């Protein structure tokens, strides 16, 4: 059994997962194609961060949304421990992040992932994300795939 919990970027279990993700991405891409955002440097009101815990106590996944203040957000740092993949934990985590983002009036989520992370691309596609053009602060990069999903088509409906 697993649970999804609020998290902070200063928690040692979250730091350990992000370090593992960083090592993985550094092995796949050159430094200029790695967009490794330090979540701890962000103001708390701009960040949604969740972690997945196994009933035995281990933290096995994490993910974040950075809210941009214009009604959009960026999905960052989504990672599931390889030993716990194949159980749809990514979909559950993304749904939890999307739900909280929509509750904070975020109408669109975007993300950048790499071309060598085919499992991640398939995960995002299963969750309804579609490819799009590079968005700020990114520029076109042949090693990047940019995706987006509309969470709330009309914000007036979110306030009801």
Describe the structure.
It is a single chain. With 160 residues, the protein is of the alpha+beta class. It has one domain: Gcn5-related N-acetyltransferase (GNAT) (Aminopeptidase, 3-Layer(aba) Sandwich), CATH 3.40.630.30. The chain contains 4 helices and 7 strands, in the order βαβββαβαββα. The protein has a 7-stranded mixed sheet with strand order 1-2-3-4-5-7-6, with helices on both faces. α2 links the parallel β4 and β5. The longest helix has 17 residues. The radius of gyration is 15 Å and the shape is globular. The termini are far apart. The model has no long low-confidence stretch (mean pLDDT 93).
The first-level CATH class is given as: Alpha Beta
Number of helices: 4
Low-confidence region ranges: none
CATH architecture, by name, is 3-Layer(aba) Sandwich
Q: Name the beta content range.
A: 25-35%
Largest sheet strand order: 1-2-3-4-5-7-6
Pfam families: Acetyltransf_1
InterPro entries: Acyl_CoA_acyltransferase, Bact_Acetyltransf, GNAT_dom
GO molecular function: acyltransferase activity, transferring groups other than amino-acyl groups
Protein name: Putative acetyltransferase
């Amino acid at each position: 059994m697993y649970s999804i919990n609020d998290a902070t970027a200063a928690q040692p279990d979250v730091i350990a997962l992000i370090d593992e993700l960083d090592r993985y991405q550094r092995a796949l891409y050159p430094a200029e194609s790695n967009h490794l955002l330090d979540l701890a440097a962000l103001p708390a009101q701009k960040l949604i961060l969740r972690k997945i815990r196994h009933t035995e106590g281990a933290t096995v996944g994490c993910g974040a949304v950075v809210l941009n203040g214009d009604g959009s957000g960026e999905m960052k740092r989504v990672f599931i421990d390889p030993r716990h993949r194949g159980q749809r934990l990514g979909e559950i985590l993304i749904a939890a992040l999307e739900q909280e983002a929509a509750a904070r009036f975020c109408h669109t989520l975007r993300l950048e992932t790499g071309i060598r992370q085919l499992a991640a691309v398939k995960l995002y596609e299963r969750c309804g994300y579609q490819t799009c053009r590079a968005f700020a602060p990114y520029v076109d990069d042949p090693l990047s795939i940019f995706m987006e999903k509309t969470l709330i088509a009309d914000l007036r409906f979110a306030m009801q």
